[in-house]
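Co-fold these.
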Amino acid sequence: MWVRAGRTLRPWAAGAHAAAVEPQAASRAYGVVTEFKEKPDMSKFPVEDIRNFSIIAHVDHGKSTLADRLLELTGTIDKTKNNKQVLDKLQVERERGITVKAQTASLFYNFEGKRYLLNLIDTPGHVDFSYEVSRSLSACQGVLLVVDANEGIQAQTVANFFLAFEAQLSVIPVINKIDLKNADPKRVEKQIEKVFDIPGDECIKISAKLGTNVESVLQAVIERIPPPKVYRKNPLRALVFDSTFDQYRGVIANIALFDGVVSKGDKIVSAHTKKTYEVNEVGILNPNEQSTHKLYAGQVGFLIAGMKDVTEAQIGDTLHLHNHPVEPLPGFKSAKPMVFAGVYPVDQSEYNTLKSAIGKLTLNDSSVTVHRDSSLALGAGWRLGFLGLLHMEVFNQRLEQEYNASVILTTPTVPYKAVLSSAKLIKEYKEKEITVINPAQFPDKSKVTEYLEPVVLGTVITPDEYTGKIIALCQARRAVQKNMIFIDQNRVMLKYLFPLNEIVVDFYDSLKSLSSGYASFDYEDAGYQAAELVKMDILLNGNFVEELVTIVHKEKAYSVGKNICERLKDSLPRQLFEIAIQAVIGSKVIARETVKAYRKNVLAKCYGGDITRKMKLLKRQTEGKKKLRKIGNIEVPKDAFIKVLKTQSNK
Ligand SMILES: Nc1nc2c(ncn2[C@@H]2O[C@H](COP(=O)(O)OP(=O)(O)OP(=O)(O)O)[C@@H](O)[C@H]2O)c(=O)[nH]1
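Predicted complex below.
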């Protein structure tokens, strides 16, 4: 149905001759064996012996497990039972069992008397992290498209295939989990033929868990993915495709060399900032950092050059030698945020610490957009743009885990637009159509000609038996059907145009629960459409709660308001007096709940006169209060909002 991926790729070319680099076994965490007797000599890997590839798939189809097996097979890590998702290095990834950051590893592999250098990039599967996938692909000439032998093609399989297809990469289909009782690799092979137009006999059937047939994946990488086309004799041209911040060493940039050579001591220039640096260290990721003398065109590795400030190594930047300026590489399309939320320090005295933490984390996750913001209630903060709610949660969790930062998050909102009619506002904004990313700045209806809401083209893949329920769900979310096809006898692919705000919060969970987990979902940007929108405020005893201001479609205002009030009622602790929770549009109250009065006496069970015990309890109560936010005289635990935000539903 679709044309198949081409086999010719980006402009990379040829080089010198191969020889071995032997890593010396030395176990580390997760059985990693990356110690070398001496620095590997990367000149021994000519371009024709290099393959750069990514593993892409729908979430949970086994990318990281396959990466583990490839690392073991090539002797990069020890073969132990502990090797589970070795490349998922972040705490958040290991806790959630998902990949959120693409990770690179250079593997050495002997095949038919030659030693190859294989650069592997493991990528996330969830739609919120697809920006990581598209960036990773820029450093590759081919992909392993992993598909679960039981679940078959899912929504992100389709989305990721097209990212690779558009980047003109070679696609090797890998059908994984053939050990499962319900595996049906033949059926999946047919789906791959039908949906991607790839001949079934190109599919490699494996069990990444048991290691079955994984060796043939490495052979296919060598045989079916072309070496990069690069020019080692040209002056250096390196693409920064990822970067992290290390407290002691500054910025560590992951680079792919398109031209030339880079060595320790070289003077390099950032095409973006025009600043000059001296290279302190270059090397490969194996998967830990391993210094080398040099890196050559066609290779992928890391570079440290004394960049101390997080703004200095932008992802997508081109590095070149001092006095040898080059045409910068195309870089990356900037990520388009799908949801925005206010982020404020719990305590204003922590503003600067949080600012630095956000700066460092956004260096590593460049898909987050940052605007300064402030509010009367919450003080100075930021409005951050994320690619989805999971992305927002993961970013928040990383801020807490990696930078010990505690933040207040406001209700996420999608970027609405307003076409202004008020001459005063047009003058103030200097344009007629404005994008509103902060609900507090939503212009009043009397000042606009129309409001516009963002829409996305969503793909749902489901077993046929759930189609009816899914169509009903999509209709309840104001979606318009665009297409419906069978990808095999009992699997349907539906395409719908959705208002973005109808899917960002809980659409995925609803879809999963009504299809017993079988349906999958992915979406892409599809512009804007006119919509009847209203701004809804939440009041606690008449006091406005900035965290919860929401823009809603007129049709949904009542149910959303009622839902927020009910959830707030469940998460607010009872206090000495009654609390009225109201959802209000303009001056009209559309929903109301009440929390009854109650006094929590921490000393109630503390009979007798043990003063130290009483002091201890009172101190603990004071400490607890730091986690509270006062709205009027009402004390609201910080996590009450998070609970409401997480579970707020647009039904
Ligand atoms: N039975 C079986 N299970 C497998 C196989 N490969 C992976 N799994 C399991 O499938 C689950 C998901 O595997 P991962 O490797 O984390 O999948 P992933 O695609 O990297 O997931 P994300 O990074 O979250 O997108 C884990 O529980 C694995 O143990 C396989 O060949 N057979």
